[in-house]
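Why does this matter for the project? Reviewers at the last site visit asked to see concrete outputs rather than summary tables. In response, this paragraph embeds two records directly. Each consists of the residue sequence and, immediately after it, the corresponding structure tokens. Nothing has been edited or filtered.
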Amino acid sequence: VRASAVIIMDRLEQNQLQAEVLQKIAEDIDRLAAPGFDATVNFRNKLQDGFRSSQLTLKSSYYDKKNQKRIYEEIIWQTDYDPDRGTLKLYRLHGGLNVEDKVLEPDPKNSENTDFFVPVASGVTYFEIRSQQGENILGAWTSEKLPKAVRVGISFELQQELPDGSIDVPEESVHYRTIAIERTRFIPYQFVKKEFDVPEEPNEL
């Protein structure tokens, strides 16, 4: 009973952590890719030591007095292989002029790069970002134009042999979240008239 309780608690904590990570990524995208900002959302995926690994880069820019484009805020989410656990570790970097912790704001006289990656979660076995543009599912986005939405998937479940013979995390063990970019934009739609077959007499119970 105790062993079963430990397994259940571990899974609950993993599900909570997955949800928290996806929520934080969604908040970063919503804030940096807001209307009126010169923002970019780029991502790429790769296989790293047998794991699905990804990097998401968010940037918002401004133009200085010389009309030179400068980075106002930059956030990077990425995974890297963790040799100690044999899995991936998820990191987040926050850089640019608009720092989160004003106490740790870098000295403008110091030209050294003070941006650093902060570990967010260890034991990650799946981290992938994709975007659907029309009928195409894209595994990378490097355009200056914002994608309409991104789908982020993360899992802490162990890899196993799938029915097709490959080694990967089962689809049902991956926690996904689709994040719309610039959600306040106008989305055209139209009502489509549809005919329904209605029985002449009600069904008898």
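We now turn to the second protein, recorded in exactly the same manner.
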Amino acid sequence: EAPANRHAPRGGSSSMIDKLNALESSYDELMRQISESAVQTDPDQYRKHAKALAELQPVVERFREYKVVVKEIADTQELETSGDPDMQTLAAEELPGLESRRDALMVDLKRLLVPKDPNDEKNVVLEIRAGTGGDEAGLFAADLFRMYGRFAERAGWRLEVLSTSETGVGGIKEVIAAIEGRGAYSRLKYESGVHRVQRVPATEASGRIHTSTATVAVLPEAEEVDIHVDPKELRIDTFCSSGPGGQSVNTTYSAVRITHLPTGVVVSQQDEKSQIKNRAKAMKVLRSRLYDMELRRRQEAIAQDRRSQVGTGERSEKIRTYNFPQNRITDHRINFTTHRLAEVLGGDLGELIETLATHDQSEKLREATTGDVAPERA
């Protein structure tokens, strides 16, 4: 490397610096507008501008600090060629510290530019359904539910079963549960998709390996402030519960079926003896499904080219294979393999989730520093 380039700024591509300059210009323009009397007398406009300023301020302040350090590096480099031995010695002493500070600021800037998922701190509605494979698929769905339950327990989260439909052999046709805890969605959002298992069923006399599937959906729990559901757009039916629950359950109209007429989404709930409780649980699931539908619609509209991101996988996409004969789990989205199958099914999902999250962050960072997407914040 040529000596003249030895101290050139590192870490920031020209497109990234252009983006940072554009954000700084936007910040200055907002500052100008917010000082105008017209904005100050309009509460809605003032709040809008103030919110935008607050979102931009951290990255702009860090960028300005970065530019100051880059200028100091350039000035110090001039001292190296001044011909004055004392100045050259001083420059040689100061440059490493300045370069270290510059590089640290660039790391901060990259982090600040990565879009943040506003749903990361939300609770989760987890839905698991048996797929192809008959009874074995139901047993696999039950295995997955136990896995997530143990993971939630390790994390100190609270899990509440909202509804469940079991098979006759200890499996699960469908289970819907709420998981409440700090950062639950940020950790579990990568689990949506088709999970595949390859193993020899206990009832298989010839020892042949069977392949079965189960689908997992992880929805950010939506509050009423997140999505408005017009009561006029709901059809609510009540009926007698069926299955386990005893005589009092089966002879009262406690079960609830809610249909959202505009979308056709149907949610049924019958696990509670109280119609009020069943209705509340059904509304929790309905809001989360509608919110998830809206999120996906927005993602489709603005991110057709983001198929590589693990956080927005399609429900129909095969994301992971659990191979029992080889004691192997492979996540197909990032080509990651681990031979800790028993530990993962026992709730030790940390390594898998961390690897997926790191990949997702890398993709978002690449896009944020080279594309045209402005930083998003919760």
